[in-house]
Amino acid sequence: MSQLCVLLALMLVGGCSLDAKVREAKRVMGEGVARDSKGGISLVSLEKVNGFEKDLDGTPGYVMDFKAVIRYDQDAVKLKFRDRTIWDGIRGYYDDFYVHPYPEDGSDTYAEGEALYYHKGDKVELYGTMTFAKTDNGWKLGDLKIARYVDDLQQ
């Protein structure tokens, strides 16, 4: 009986720890999406798909694969992220959450392959990885990478 109690206690502690990571992930990603897009995009949901513990240079860490859904709260254009320090100069559309106003005349003012056009209410699924580090005050999100997106969701 005491072994069962210990097992249940360990499951509860592990579950709380995981819940803390998921809560932190939702908080940080939700705030980042809203801030970067200046209210043009909001986080609808975020769920853990997989995860594992990982040593981060001597600090306990956790890597979490996730699926998130974001919603465009206004008509907007999403441009590819450009970084002059990267050799090819181009990363992906969702390396940041900055958006640009939708052209009033509806024209495609950007080069082909450089922009995605969204209307208010459009939803996009994002798949990626988050890395957490254990700190004295709980888990802290250290890195977020979007691996792929699906943007043909029905509203």
Describe the structure.
By secondary structure, the protein is of the alpha+beta class. The chain has one domain. The protein is 23% helix and 43% strand. It has 1 helix and 7 strands; from the N terminus they run H-E-E-E-E-E-E-E. It has one helix at 2-36; strands at 41-56, 59-72, 76-79, 100-101, 115-118, 123-135, 138-150. Strands 1-2-6-7 form a 4-stranded antiparallel sheet. A hairpin with a 2-residue loop joins strand 6 (123-135) and strand 7 (138-150). The longest helix has 35 residues, at 2-36. It is elongated. The N and C termini lie far apart (51 Å). The model is unreliable at 1-16 and 84-90 (pLDDT under 50).
Low-confidence segments: 1-16, 84-90
Kindly state the number of beta strands. Answer: 7
Mean pLDDT across residues: 78
Distance between the termini: 51 Å
Walk across the major sheet and give the strand order: 1-2-6-7
Percent of sequence in beta strands: 35-45%
- The proportion of residues forming helix, as a percent range, comes to 10-25%
Please trace the helix and strand order, writing H or E for each element.
Answer: HEEEEEEE
Number of helical stretches of at least 4 residues = 1
How many structural domains? Answer: 1
Radius of gyration: 19 Å
- Provide the structure class: alpha+beta
Outline: elongated
Biggest sheet features:
4 strands, antiparallel
Give me the secondary-structure topology:
Layout: H1 2-36, E1 41-56, E2 59-72, E3 76-79, E4 100-101, E5 115-118, E6 123-135, E7 138-150
Antiparallel strand pairs: 1-2, 2-6, 3-4, 3-5, 6-7
